[in-house]
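Encode chain A's predicted structure.
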Amino acid sequence: MSLLAAATPTTSSHFSAPLLPSFHVPRRNLTAPLHRIRRSRLLTVVASVPDPAAGPVEYTPWLIAGLGNPGNKYYGTRHNVGFEMVDRIAGEEGITMNTIQSKSLLGIGSIGEVPVLVVKPQSYMNYSGEAIGPLAAYYQVPLRHILLVLIISVLLMIYDDMSLPNGVLRLQKKGGHGRHNGLQNVIENLDGRREFPRLSIGIGSPPGKMDPRAFLLQKFSSEERVQIDASLEQGVDAVRTLVLKGFCGSTERFNLVQKYKFHKV
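Encoded structure for chain A:
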């Protein structure tokens, strides 16, 4: 059984922006091998789960945004794991990130048959909403299909006031900002709405009395790097399943497995 079960079809939603054509996909089994949709094809968008009795299948787009900072100073650091996850998703799905729009570097493609935008805001983490809000409006992405990828450490105190160990993932359907400035800015730029999913990546907590800001700007140890790389692979699978099949109670099982994956019995 998949970690995430099927979502119900939704009403029609369309990309009207000139940069991205509307998405129209021939009906096919979503269990078939994944492949990319060429931008040259005329496409229209409505839901993540097709109705076999319907005519041409249509899909609602997703916007997948990693939170981080631009610049070499942050490359490979704990601070920018959200960017790494987006890069990994784009690479696995064959999406080229070569478009600059709305203070963002983005790529346009698909996961299976579902159209996606993969986004790395260039507005710095605390102002991520200035990039994500306008993009969501421009491409008419519904709130439930805006997935944020962000780090969690003890200094950020996200959602339930608990930090996540290094390399542990957590997938949530919605939530507050938990004093995370970047997440708060996204909510503000989505008209105060917070009913959008998040994929959180644990980076642990600073040792002893270490300055949290210095901890964020550090690169991972070799052991931590192995854990992060494994979590990026697991994150790609989780995002792919979420986009194709949606949320359900199995998400709790995914989170439970992640929570205890480094515990030795």
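The chain has six helices and seven strands.
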